[in-house]
């Protein structure tokens, strides 16, 4: 910036004609020179480039408030910004919209647009979608880091009961927090497996016993093991409910509903066995108990709580509803068409197995899905030809949507791994800065980090260690800092 009496910069020659539509400026962004004319820039007067046209009349203070450097001889403005992003942003002056090139970080591009004072409404919809996804990733990273910090932090003002609640919650919900928590998670996993195995083994006739009335029932030993497993599940659920920070959210969570469905049948059947006989017939009680015992299969879904792979599969299927809908639609159309054709072609045969079109649906389903039980099959030549075509169409109909579903699974799985690694990386950086004494992260900054995302946190804090290339750092007077251009590259 020019100081008083500085002879390096001659006086700025102000020409009033530069304010008209024929004004011309030269901009150098990261070594890339670009010439702009006033008639283009004045279409968007609130942008930084449009302000450069009128900044010369305000002197050097006005000039250096808009750019990093200025050459009066060449009338050239210098900016230490990303030239690749700048090439995309200037499209707004010529085409009225902006497209973000592949390979540019969306968050960096958003910051560049804010620097050049170009509204985000000019960004194309496809690029806005990419930007929204990146913002969601940053918010998720911020949430994970904040959760870890909350677990590590100890608030002296909290009561003993609150501290105990936090300890129990972390002990049961976060196996990675300590070695005893890992042991409890393994025990819970084993109890789920044992309970599922006991449920299956209890249906073997050789292992069942006959009561006084001649009815078969589970072996007492298996029944005792089942009772012990239910006791463990009940104790685990009650402890998690008591220690939960948000009990309403906990009760309405899908996995916790599964836990209730896995526990409740045992107590309901126990109640019906002891009290139901007085209120209804014994046969009705036994039927109700048998129906409730079937509901025990819900406990197998408890494995998803301890398996990240099953959780990933669940989320991937949620994101693949459109592809699954297309698969069902293809199969439904094929089943209807080929079952009707099969019924029509098989009517001429005296021993036809196709009695009606609804009955032919079963044949079409097992044929198009390549199962082929053989209980219903065509006997005429045309019927066999129809079966061959339906088989081929079924293979194609199933294969087409499978690839997008697999891509959704792989994308989500990789995304979760990246988010987990990014959260650990930021914690390591924060720990490194804290150890070296180069940064002081206050509680208010951490709250801003959790509310506004990772980007606002690092811009607000005074961390001096370079982060990942995804983020742009503020320019600093110290030479060892990375510049905006270096960060973008």
Automatic annotation (TrEMBL):
Domain of life: Eukaryota
Molecular function (Gene Ontology), one example: voltage-gated potassium channel activity
Domain Potassium channel tetramerisation-type BTB stretches: 25-126
GO cellular component assignments: voltage-gated potassium channel complex
Subcellular localization(s) per the UniProt record: Cell membrane
A single GO BP: action potential
Record domain Ion transport: where: 182-416
Keywords: Cell membrane, Ion channel, Ion transport, Membrane, Potassium, Potassium channel, Potassium transport, Transmembrane, Transmembrane helix, Transport, Voltage-gated channel
Membrane topology, from the record: Multi-pass membrane protein
Main localization, broad class: membrane
Transmembrane regions: 183-204, 248-270, 324-341, 385-406
Subunit composition and interactions: Heterotetramer with KCNB1 or KCNB2.
Family that this chain belongs to: Belongs to the potassium channel family. F (TC 1.A.1.2) subfamily. Kv5.1/KCNF1 sub-subfamily.
Main function: Regulatory alpha-subunit of the voltage-gated potassium (Kv) channel which, when coassembled with KCNB1 or KCNB2, can modulate their expression and their gating kinetics by acting on deactivation upon repolarization and inactivation during maintained depolarization. Accelerates inactivation but has relatively little effect on deactivation. Coexpression with KCNB1 or KCNB2 markedly slows inactivation.
Protein name, UniProt field: Voltage-gated potassium channel regulatory subunit KCNF1
Organism: Trogon melanurus (Black-tailed trogon)
